Amino acid sequence: MTSIQDVIAAVLLLLGATSSLLGAVGLLRLPDLPARLQAATKAQTLGLLLVLAAAALRVEPRDAATLVLVAMFQVITAPVVSQLVGRSAYRSGSLGRETLVVDELAERMARERSS
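^ that's the sequence the OP posted. Answer follows.
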């Protein structure tokens, strides 16, 4: 049974590393801030979750509970941080608004200014 767990853990580690690498490449190669935030948030989170799953297969079950907490913290905080960075870039004007397909925040900001 241990050799099967070793193979599964190795595959999960490789998939996690590949996902993280693709996220890093996306940060360097994608043209604008929303696309870079997407690459940073989704690919890096998936990569970390896969690496944590691989580690959970190799440690004691009581130690795996800590890895579950790390995974939950990552899943909760990464989208929030990404949205805050995107919103601050939008409000500061460093985000090219002409590239947006739907701009719901402009309507909300206009309502806030008028009230």
